[in-house]
Amino acid sequence: MNGRQGAAGAQAPGEILAGLRAGMVARVVPWMRDALAAALQDLDARAEANPPSPPLIEDRADVSLLLREVLVYETRWQQQIDVLLEGWPRMKAIGGGQLTLMAEDDLRAQLVGAPVIDALEHRFRDIVDLVDRRLYTLAARMGGESHPRNPFAPRALAETFLRAFTALDSSVRVHALVLRHFAKLASDRLAAVYQWSNGYLADAGCELSTGHEGAFLSGLPPAANAGAGTGSPDEGAAQDRLRSRLAGRRRAEPQPESVPRRIRDQEMDSLLSLLQSERGVGLDAAPGDAQPTSARLRAGLDRIGVGIGIGLGSAVRTPWQEASIEVVGRLVDTLAAHAALSDAQARALQRLALPLLRFALEDPGLFDPPLRPVLRVLSSIVRAWDGNPARGPVERAMQRIGDEAAAALMLDQTSRAGQLEALAARIDAEAEPHRRRADAVATRLWQSMQGRERLEAARADADEALAQLRTQARLPATLAGFLAQHWRQWLVQIWLRDGSGSARYRDALAIGEALVALDAESDGHAIAGRLLQLEPGLRECLAIGGLHDDAATLELSRLVAEFADPDAPKGSDPPEPLAAAAGSSASHAMEIEGIAVGDRFARTLDDGTRQALTLAWLSPLSGIALLVDAQGARQSVLDAASMQRAIEGGELRRLVAGDPVEHALGVIAAAVEAGEPGG
């Protein structure tokens, strides 16, 4: 018990309850006006968007009347709360404690409020548990013999709010609308209210009860306290290697003679809920603050603990809790360090450390492979944000997918494994079509570029082969024309179909060399015999150019006639090259070391945002690299030297190409294995 608790401990239990009632009423009753005003604004927006229907006009009139008489309904709400408090801790149920037919108001309240109440109870269960256990202490002091009902729990507040209205005030439809807006307000504001009530009860000396009348946590001896909750995984539960290693190191550290009690699992859940209710704002780094996320998590938990009566030094976290904080903090920091995130995305990622820590404490094997659903969701979020400037439609769609998934984790909408699986499946279902379309666009693009480049390389090789033949001898006009037109095109087609290293390509080159050699032959019988041997290949060559049967025979007869004429004039002008640019042959290819198709890079745009580019194609002929954006559109085409300079100069920064969480956990595991200090 701290000094404030000792000073407040002189208060009578009835006075403490009255003070709690006054503070809670002052904080929550104004929500009546806010909920009605929000409902009226909602109806006005609907009326502007569409021609108002008669039910809409009727609902708007009802809400307007309720808002004008809001003081009456605020008073009714307070009266309903006071009804709950009559005779507390022996508190009677809402609507009376006797077994009777359910009144119409009670039935309406249950039917309208059930879904909203369930959602609020689920969201604030850990924080409310902390209030409940302090109320157990207060109830025991007031002579209570059983667990009292919390008169300010989400169910009690929502039901008393609904009972402030009667069937004569408005329709069930209006009740449902107003309650939805009340739930939105409560979702944003209740955490702060419960944090105040925890602090108030702690200052009043209401210690955290174990839930058994007369037995309070702070009064237990150390041995009993250890059994009340160790904050460690259940015996026999599979523990992941990362946290086991870190927790083992902490246990091996020298312990002080006077060891404070360990923070219980339920207390840690409550602290996390209170910290998460701040939407992670407490984790945001101040300018110039380079603290790791794990340090901010510890500071936030300590701050919340002091606020609800768990003072510094009065309780310490277990080695397993500390290891969980350390791994979660390192995971978030590593993801941020290896991704290209905007400032807003980096803050949002850091805030996700809170729900991640909750999942880590619930699942002792979370960080062992294969990835659990929550880590798959985290990977999808980082992939959606990484290098995303939200300029194009695909980038904006991926930004939205990542934002919605992060909001679902922050709002604790995915507490069950099935919900996480469904969220992961929904993200994949929304993102996969965008990725498939981008892949298809990029594939068409690089295939077109590759086709043009291969054609140029084939033409360049054919030009080079012809140039080599022309250096061997001065050729007569018909032979020179045949080689320049038909033979070169034949080489190009075989290059494209079979490659320059194929047997067919070598045979085609040999035919060209044989024709040049025949031109130097003077023996007519030898020429005729050799031409008969070459005829099948020559006819195939002519067929490539569209000459068949008689047309091919006519072209061959011209060659034969020229070979038979020893006085045929020789020498001709060099033909026009087939290749558009000199030096496009595959022999000029240059490799880029250390990169492969699928690698991702970030570049900085003019406005300072960073954009992720994917290496969609790396030419095996020239080493040219094609970089595309999230839509598959071409953003940059670099030769090998320029690509290398851009990487080395930092213009292109490498990003993680595979799963970001798997990569981050690998980095953390290597650091832990190497014995790097942490936590």
From TrEMBL:
Protein origin, superkingdom: Bacteria
In this chain, composition skew of type Basic and acidic residues spans 250-263
Region (Disordered) residue ranges read: 224-263, 565-584
**What is the protein's given name?**
DUF1631 family protein
